[in-house]
């Protein structure tokens, strides 16, 4: 069995435009077979740059439904449809995924019905199935066993309707030979630490809570304070990412969804290392692990 590779297709902390990083997306793959984990803008082109084919993608796993993690999903579906990339596609994600996928496939109806004089009608739309998962759910993707856990990227009151409706998930991928845990977007979370226990590789987000994204820097102090509180409660600082890796006892951490300015990466690495003494990697687009 060929070993599976994790490729970071997009490593930006979205949803802001970034000059050198694509929006969040990852590929877990071997020759001829792949799973897309989150689907930010440019995911389809990044798949090609990673040396894989669109036809190789058998499933999509979405951590949550923020646009920086789903913006490339419509392109994925449409660019399977028009060139007639066949085969079923299953999209796993939190509550709301079925509604999202339903609207996207409905939006493809015009394209599916559109014909040309020499090539009448592209339809039917390739088979797409949405499967909603939540805390503790498990499923298999060929030889990979996947387990989901709710994290703290959303901080609604525990018993509220919003808490049930809006969920952000982390995933553990049990592959032949190693366990890989993907945090998606999360704040500090004991639940994620338990999910990641003794994993070989932790793919973790990281954000500088004192950083205001460039697009928001002229919006005034109230916006800056809101962003700071959001980063502190619903994302991981460098110290918190290191603490998560140490608490879980993982062998290595790969930091993606990088909300740290390039000039501050060395200092962020030191903060991660002050809590975690394993291997530390700050990912760039198309890095392979």
How would you portray this structure in words?
The protein is of the alpha/beta class. The protein is built from 10 helices and 14 strands. It has a 7-stranded mixed sheet. α1 links the parallel β3 (33-39) and β4 (57-61). The two termini are 17 Å apart. The model has no long low-confidence stretch (mean pLDDT 92).
SS-derived structural category: alpha/beta
Helical proportion? 25-40%
Q: Total helix count?
A: 10
Strand order of the biggest β-sheet: 6-5-4-3-2-1-14
Q: What's this, in brief?
A:
This protein is of the alpha/beta class. It has helices at residues 43-49, 67-70, 73-81, 97-107, 109-113, 161-165, 190-195, 221-234, 238-248, 265-273; strands spanning 5-10, 25-30, 33-39, 57-61, 89-93, 128-132, 138-141, 144-150, 169-175, 178-182, 201-207, 252-259, 279-282, 287-288.
Indicate the topology.
Elements: E1 5-10, E2 25-30, E3 33-39, H1 43-49, E4 57-61, H2 67-70, H3 73-81, E5 89-93, H4 97-107, H5 109-113, E6 128-132, E7 138-141, E8 144-150, H6 161-165, E9 169-175, E10 178-182, H7 190-195, E11 201-207, H8 221-234, H9 238-248, E12 252-259, H10 265-273, E13 279-282, E14 287-288
Parallel strand pairs: 3-4, 4-5, 5-6, 10-11, 11-12, 12-13
Antiparallel strand pairs: 1-2, 1-14, 2-3, 7-8, 8-9, 9-10
Helix pairs in contact: 9-10
Key words describing this protein structure:
single chain; 289 residues; alpha/beta; 7-stranded mixed sheet; 28% helix; globular
């Amino acid at each position: 069995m060929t070993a599976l590779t994790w490729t970071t297709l997009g490593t930006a902390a979205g949803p802001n435009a970034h000059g050198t990083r694509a929006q969040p997306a990852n590929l877990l793959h071997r020759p001829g077979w792949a799973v897309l984990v989150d689907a930010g803008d440019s995911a389809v082109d990044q798949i090609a740059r990673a040396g894989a084919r669109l036809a190789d993608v058998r499933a999509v796993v979405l951590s949550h439904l923020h646009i920086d993690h789903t913006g490339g999903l419509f392109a994925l579906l449409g660019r399977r449809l028009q060139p007639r990339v066949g085969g079923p596609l299953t999209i796993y994600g939190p509550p709301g995924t079925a509604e999202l996928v339903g609207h996207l496939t409905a939006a493809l109806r015009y394209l599916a019905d559109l014909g040309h004089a020499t090539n009448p009608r592209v339809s039917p739309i390739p088979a797409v199935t949405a499967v909603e998962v939540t805390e503790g759910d498990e499923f298999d993707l060929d030889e990979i066993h996947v387990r989901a856990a709710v994290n703290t990227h959303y901080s609604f009151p525990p018993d509220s309707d919003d808490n049930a409706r809006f969920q952000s998930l982390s995933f553990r991928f049990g592959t032949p030979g190693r366990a890989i845990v993907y945090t998606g977007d999360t704040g500090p979370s004991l639940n994620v630490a338990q999910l990641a226990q003794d994993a070989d590789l932790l793919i973790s987000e990281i954000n500088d809570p004192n950083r205001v994204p460039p697009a928001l820097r002229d919006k005034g102090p109230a916006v800056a304070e809101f962003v700071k509180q959001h980063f502190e409660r619903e994302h991981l600082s460098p110290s918190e990412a290191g603490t998560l890796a140490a608490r879980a006892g993982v062998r290595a951490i790969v930091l993606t969804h990088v909300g740290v300015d390039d000039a501050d990466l060395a200092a962020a690495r030191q903060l991660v290392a002050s809590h975690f003494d394993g291997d530390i990697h700050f990912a760039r687009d198309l890095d392979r692990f």
